[in-house]
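Milestone 3.1: sequence recovery, worked example.
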């Protein structure tokens, strides 16, 4: 969430940022400032009452020492009443503070000045391109290749669980495992520390990274235990350091984690969900950074470059999009999407998002650091897919297929697979 002091000092800019992100309820800003003013006024009243009560307490001692018990007793009664008033006001303070926090949770992060203003994906900017998209008409979409070779079973997945929960068989199961190991090994070579994370998180964790209150409809819930099934490893991995204070010398912190991910994908339909294009359960290797505020946008560029390097090593043509304000998301300050070319479908498929959240998540999670002057300040958090598997697998199957029906294994994966052909 945004710092209340920042909102107070930059009210117009915060409202403009909300509108640019497609959030039209800009009256939220006025409401949160009004509630904050009430809270601060009440804090002053409580502080004054405490000060008066302390003065009376000292007076009681003086009067008792002078033998003026009746006068002291009157002040004792007044002090008792003050304590009850303070208790009542503190309860009111807690309620107002909670109300302010709930309002703050509904205000999105501020877009960075370098982010293009736009309303939809049509306003995204092509930041970079690599490789030549294959336009050969003979290339089949991955679901046809899968049917021919019995590699991915969507029907039995639907029988066992439901649509969007496929089975991977034989060499495709091995390809998934090879990609996971390749992505993790590459990340470790770049200084990321591998972390195995829980697949379920509690409400505080979901709120900390911004899934709540914003993406409730996207997550699977286990009501009996109060758990949410993770939509991405970003959630448990970033919360790993919730309520912690770093020493400045220990920054930056970089993690890589493989997890399955679960997303309800409510409202998804049509041709975009065919095959592996959009699933409810999928595998992903995630990268998380916790960094000094002064370096976070440099860290975003290095995160993007690293994700791009994986696609280059797989020899998959891709393009990088700088997302506009309206297509960026609630929590991000700046975001890149990487899309690979699907030669069988003749379209681009998103395989990675690289985002800088600035201090938006860190403030929710209270992830801080002590600077050189001993002052405690918020850190910045980033995350990126490195990479998400389903569409990478789809693009590889389509790009590596031969006219005779065989599918080659990318050179960088052959040592993991122990074979040159699927």
């Amino acid at each position: 969430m945004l710092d209340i002091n920042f909102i107070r000092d930059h009210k117009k800019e915060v409202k403009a940022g909300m509108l640019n992100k497609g959030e039209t309820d800009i009256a939220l800003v006025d409401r949160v400032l009004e509630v904050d003013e009430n809270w601060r006024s009440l804090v002053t009243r409580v502080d004054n009452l405490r000060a008066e009560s302390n003065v009376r307490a000292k007076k009681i001692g003086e009067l008792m020492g002078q033998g003026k018990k009746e006068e002291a007793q009157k002040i004792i009664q007044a002090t008792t009443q003050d304590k009850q008033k303070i208790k009542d006001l503190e309860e009111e303070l807690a309620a107002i503070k909670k109300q302010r926090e709930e309002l703050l949770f509904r205000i999105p992060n501020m877009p960075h000045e370098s982010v293009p203003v736009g309303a939809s994906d049509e306003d995204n900017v092509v930041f970079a391109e690599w490789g030549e998209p294959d336009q050969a008409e003979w290339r089949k979409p991955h679901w046809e290749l899968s049917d021919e070779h019995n590699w991915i079973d969507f029907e039995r997945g639907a029988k066992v669980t439901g649509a969007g929960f496929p089975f991977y068989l034989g060499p495709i199961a091995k390809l998934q495992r090879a990609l996971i190991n390749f992505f993790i090994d590459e990340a470790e070579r770049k200084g990321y520390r591998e972390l195995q994370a829980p697949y379920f998180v509690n409400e505080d964790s979901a709120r900390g990274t911004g899934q709540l209150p914003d993406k409730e409809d996207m997550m699977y819930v286990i009501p009996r235990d109060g758990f949410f099934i993770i939509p991405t490893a970003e959630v448990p991995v970033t919360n790993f350091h919730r309520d912690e204070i770093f020493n400045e010398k220990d920054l930056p912190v970089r993690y890589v984690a493989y997890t399955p991910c679960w997303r309800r994908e409510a409202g998804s339909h049509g041709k975009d969900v065919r095959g592996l294009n959009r699933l409810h359960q999928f595998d992903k290797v995630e990268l998380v950074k916790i960094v000094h505020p002064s370096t976070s946008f440099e860290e975003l560029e290095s995160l993007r470059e690293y994700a791009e390097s994986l696609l280059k090593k797989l020899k998959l043509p891709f393009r990088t999009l700088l997302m506009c304000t309206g297509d960026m998301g609630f929590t991000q300050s700046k975001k890149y999407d990487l899309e690979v070319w699907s030669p069988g479908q003749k379209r681009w498929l998103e395989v990675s998002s690289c985002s800088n959240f600035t201090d938006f998540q860190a403030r929710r999670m209270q992830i801080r650091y002590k600077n050189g002057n001993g002052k405690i300040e918020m850190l910045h958090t980033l995350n990126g897919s490195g990479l998400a598997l389903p569409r990478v697998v789809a693009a590889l199957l389509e790009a590596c297929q031969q006219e005779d029906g065989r599918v080659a294994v990318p050179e960088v994966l052959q040592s993991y697979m122990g074979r040159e052909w699927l």
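The longest helix spans residues 27-65. The chain has a mean pLDDT of 93.
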